[in-house]
């Protein structure tokens, strides 16, 4: 919940909160790595597939999209 609220706060000033956004996304991505390692060690857990896909695929894509938005010139 805390990460979600922090990310909502980032929406107010998307180009000013680049480091916070990337740090939060890193935490989520590392959670996905942990979920992947757990799956490899313990065995397949079908309930992990959805969250793991979000954490390992969608999060890096969001970081790339955020980088493009943050570096784009502002239109007045």
Label this structure with key terms.
76 residues, mainly alpha
Order of helices and strands: HHH
Strand content: under 5%
Task: Output the radius of gyration.
Answer: 15 Å
The major β-sheet equals: none
Q: Helix segment count?
A: 3
Number of strands: 0
Question: What structural class do you assign from the helix and strand content?
Answer: mainly alpha
Low-confidence stretches: none
- Shape type: elongated
- Percent of residues in helical segments? over 70%
Instruction: Compute the average pLDDT.
Output: 88
Report the span from N to C terminus: 34 Å
Describe the structure.
The chain has three helices and no strands. It has helices at 2-10, 18-42, 49-71. The chain is mostly helical and 76 residues long. 7% of the residues are buried.
């Amino acid at each position: 919940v805390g990460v979600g609220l922090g990310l909502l706060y980032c929406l107010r000033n998307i180009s000013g909160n680049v480091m916070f956004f990337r740090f939060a996304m890193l935490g989520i991505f590392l959670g996905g790595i942990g979920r992947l390692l757990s799956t490899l060690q313990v065995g397949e857990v079908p309930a992990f597939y959805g969250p793991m896909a979000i954490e390992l695929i969608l999060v890096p894509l969001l970081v790339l999209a955020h980088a493009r938005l943050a570096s784009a010139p502002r239109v007045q």
